[in-house]
Design a protein that fits this description.
Strand content: 15-25%
Shape: globular
Number of helices: 19
GO molecular function: FAD binding; oxidoreductase activity
Largest sheet: 9 strands, antiparallel
Distance between the termini: 23 Å
Protein name: Podospora anserina S mat+ genomic DNA chromosome 1, supercontig 3
CATH class of the largest domain: Alpha Beta
Helix content: 25-40%
Number of domains: 3
Keywords: FAD, Flavoprotein, Oxidoreductase, Signal
Structural class: alpha+beta
Number of strands: 24
Cofactor: FAD
Pfam families: FAD_binding_4
Length: 636
């Protein structure tokens, strides 16, 4: 929330609007303040009216979503407030609202539906283009460019670093871009001479995973896609897109053969291997809301596989045995490279001591340990269930003989389940992570040496990540979503995906979930910054702490620890900037110690503003953002 008095509002507004984007390529590279309400260049009501007319009435001016619960707001509705409170934790509410995001802190907690919290629209866009065609996106981009208005892009709001929202902005809402066409006999990209064999899907960037899986299942097909029903193509593919199927088929971005997109200059272009190749390379893995706004994707589909599924739970309920938890977690994750090579993939969670566990309400002190939901693709119906049980037998045997598990510690192995299709599996195990909280995540990619060479250091890292301002405040996700299919995919050099994906196995991240509490925000950010600092030029991972609190420096050779966001090679960035903006990239000063040569070309990141908005909220470290359950990529 922005606190200012007297002459400060104008100064604060200007500071918050100073764009790091490059201005014209003529003489000097001066920062330029974005236009905000109250400044002379802000569009008049007549200008907004003309934009709305050109959009056929699709320009929205939505109120803050929590305003119905605040008596001082024009949209206050005492009868509707209980319904909103019931829906606030549901993903479906937020992805159907034009400005709401899944996690409160990315709108700066400016209008929560809870009594005692303030409510204003300061954390949300002022106007929204409800786009249903590429033309609508184009008109919105050109209007924002003409009037120098901050531009953001929202799909479903499933964005872990908050790019779906920004104050004093115009938002392009691409949620309704749901075009669909199935190509059952190959696909020929525009301006290409060769027809690609196989089956392909052309879908709008607003298409969601549940709809895609359901419709493709009718053709006995599926895609390498996300694990949540509300995940949409736009942000998922631009982030690279990992999946349970990635260890077999590669990353989702590896399967894209053509993109329709709107550039920052307001042009509708087609990008593939035969035209606009630099943009095609950059969009696939360069991050949502970065180089362009994709409106259509064409990607390869696969025959839907049969899967063997297993939930494995290894926990201890006793606080005095917590000393075995982190070595246990380190050992299990050290086996992930060999398990992945053998065909296993899945989503694991490393549970710190005193984690509340609803399945065991009688354990009042909570539990700690390991949980994983994993699958293998069935080679034949007769291979089930030994195909998945046999992979875990040597791991469990080692645990039972090595770790001092008492009678009160136990291992629970659920009955394996066979699913005839990916849709059948997805319907039973899709992401059910609640929304309406604050989330503070950070993560790394780990390759085989990082997982296997030093289990003591790995155990100490897990221990450091587990410590927070309240019990179980940090959940460690360890997603086994890379492997042979990602490492050897023939398109692995044709996307801007971080190269570390091509050697890593594990996507590990730490999370803290809270309601609004400023003290917890500061403590959690400090913890993530200490334990997961940005990779250093001297190839040291600094800041890992032992259980005694002493700082350690772990020497590691890249790509043992990799960041998930690819920034692109300098020569490609220069060519891409010249193609899209006619401008020259330069390093920009950040509010942190290190500098980066690459900045987002289209949308100014909201998290950079928050260091100026409040004195109590330090800026997030430049960490890779990972998902809580099944989805990697950010939603545009």
């Amino acid at each position: 929330m922005i606190f200012s008095r007297g002459w400060l509002p104008g100064l604060t507004a200007c500071l918050l609007s100073c764009s790091p984007l490059l201005t014209s390529a003529s003489s000097s590279h001066k920062q330029q303040c974005k236009t905000i309400p109250g400044t002379p260049d802000w569009p008049s009501p007549a200008s907004w009216k003309r934009l709305n007319e050109s959009l056929a009435g699709r320009l929205l001016q939505p109120p803050p979503p929590g305003a119905v619960c605040h008596p001082g707001q024009p949209t206050y509705d005492a009868g509707e407030c209980p319904n909103l409170l019931a829906d606030w934790s549901k993903l479906d509410y937020h992805h159907t609202n034009p400005v709401s995001t899944y996690w409160n802190n990315w709108s700066n907690d400016t209008c929560l539906p809870y009594p005692g919290y303030p409510c204003s629209g300061q954390g949300y866009p002022l106007f929204v283009v409800n786009a249903t065609t590429a033309r609508h996106v184009q008109l919105g981009v050109r209007f924002a460019k003409k009037h120098n208005i901050r531009l953001v892009v929202k799909n479903t709001g499933h964005d872990f670093i908050g790019r779906s929202s920004a104050p004093n902005s115009l938002s392009i809402w691409v949620h309704s871009l749901k075009d669909w066409k199935y190509h059952g006999e190959g696909f020929r990209p525009k301006r290409c001479k060769t027809t690609l064999p196989g089956t392909y899907l052309t879908a709008g960037s607003g298409s969601q995973m549940w709809d895609i899986y359901t419709r493709l299942d009718e053709m006995n097909q599926t895609i390498v896609g996300g694990g949540g029903k509300t995940v949409a193509l736009g942000g998922y593919l631009t982030g690279g897109g990992h999946s349970l199927l990635s260890p077999y088929y590669g990353m989702a971005a590896d399967h894209v053969v053509e993109i329709e997109a709107v550039t920052p200059s307001g042009e509708v272009i087609t990008a593939n291997s035969c035209q606009n190749q630099d943009l095609f390379w950059a969009i696939l893995g360069g991050g949502g809301s970065t180089f362009a706004i994709p409106t259509l994707f064409t990607l390869k589909t696969h025959p839907t596989p049969s899967l063997s599924h297993l939930n494995i739970l290894i926990i201890t309920p006793l606080p005095n045995t917590s000393s075995i938890i982190f070595p246990l977690q380190a050992y299990i994750t050290s086996q992930f490279p060999s398990l992945s090579t053998s065909g296993l993939s899945g989503y694991a969670f490393l549970l710190p001591p005193s984690t509340p566990f609803p399945l065991f309400p009688n354990i009042t002190n909570g539990i700690g340990g390991f949980f994983m939901s994993c699958v293998v693709l069935q080679s034949s119906p007769s291979s089930f269930p030994q195909d998945i049980l046999s992979l875990w037998d040597p791991v469990l045997s080692h645990i039972n003989t090595t770790f001092p598990l008492s009678a009160n510690n136990f291992t629970t192995l659920t009955i394996p389940t066979s699913y005839p299709s990916f849709l059948a599996y997805f319907a039973a195990h899709h992401d059910t992570t609640p929304a309406g909280t604050n989330i503070l995540p950070g993560g790394r990619l780990l390759d085989a040496p990082a997982l296997t060479r030093n289990l003591t250091a790995l155990s100490e890292t897990y221990s450091s990540l587990s410590r927070g301002p309240q019990p179980a405040s940090s959940i460690i996700a360890a997603h086994l979503v890379s492997g042979p299919g990602v490492h050897t995919h023939p398109n692995r050099f044709k996307t801007s995906l971080l190269p570390s994906w091509r050697t890593s196995y594990l996507h590990v991240g730490a999370f803290s979930f809270h309601l609004s509490n400023h003290r917890w925000h500061c403590a959690d950010r400090g913890s993530l910054r200490r334990v997961l600092p940005p990779p250093q030029r001297n190839r040291k991972i600094r800041g890992l702490r032992t259980s005694a609190g002493k700082r350690r420096n772990h020497q590691t050779a890249r790509p043992g620890y990799g960041r998930v966001h690819e920034r692109g090679k300098p020569n490609r960035r220069k060519r891409l900037a010249a193609k899209t903006l006619g401008r020259k990239l330069r390093p920009t000063q950040t509010h942190q110690a290190h500098r980066r040569p690459h900045r987002r070309l289209l949308v100014h990141p909201l998290r950079r503003q928050r260091a100026l908005e409040t004195s109590w909220r330090p800026s997030l470290p430049r960490l890779t953002i990972v998902t809580y359950l099944h989805l990697m990529s950010q939603d545009a």
